[in-house]
Fold:
Amino acid sequence: MLYQEANGVNWVNSGNWTHATLSYCNWYGVECDTAGMKVISLSLDENSLSGTLPSEIGLLEYLETLRLSSNNFFQTLPSEIGNLVSLEEMDLSSTSFSGTIPSELQELSQLEALFLGDCNFTGNIPSELGRLSKLFFLELDTNYLTGPMPTELGSLSSMLTLKMNLNSLTGNIPTEYANMQLMEYLSLQSNFLTGEMPAEVCELTDTLVAYADCSEVSCLCCVDCRDACCSYDNKNCDPNNDEYCGADESQCLECNGVWLSSGPLTQCIAKYEACLNSDQDCCGSASCVGDEFYKQCEESLFY
Structure:
């Protein structure tokens, strides 16, 4: 059914899909279990599929992996997708799916990674996604999603990466997202969000990388939003982390750093190595001074 509905004659690779006698386990992109009976993986990404994803996709109840990214499905995502109760990964990014994101996705209790970025989805983000307790990667960026960020997503305690940028989301950033205590990457820019990034979210982890619209959202932990930086002695701090700039003045000073109160955040480290006297060593026009054992930006020349 998928071959007919998704224009199989024009697929880049359709190996054995039309073979009359071979088992479906031998079709291109199909993987079965060791018994050769149950389909556990369907990977047809970047294969020139177009048209519709048939509702019969929901019959693959043992499917664990579904990868259909970078194809052209110009229809809605069938609600029967919620029948794939064994699914652990679903990648439908860059597929042109439109309409709303089916709330039936809440039935995918084993789902760990959901990629729906760079499509044409509209409407609100389903609050039911907050029931996917095993989810650690959620990509919803580059769509036409509207409305608020669902507070229910805050219950996703395993979340590592959350991307909602390049939509039309409105309202404030929920404090409930501070429950995502393992969060490493949060991307919210290019929306219509207002207010501030909750301090509880900024304090989640030392390695959190966050993005928001600085002109609309006050965010002390967001890349490009902070108006100061820390230049420090790498020898006495962490020589393995040459991208680090202190998140605030106290953190900077604890690391024997010099707080530059009005400089850019990125690439402002006086490295424990040869001083290049460039923006990769010091903020703006600050000069790197010292010897081979201690390099530091000279604050007085920064202003």
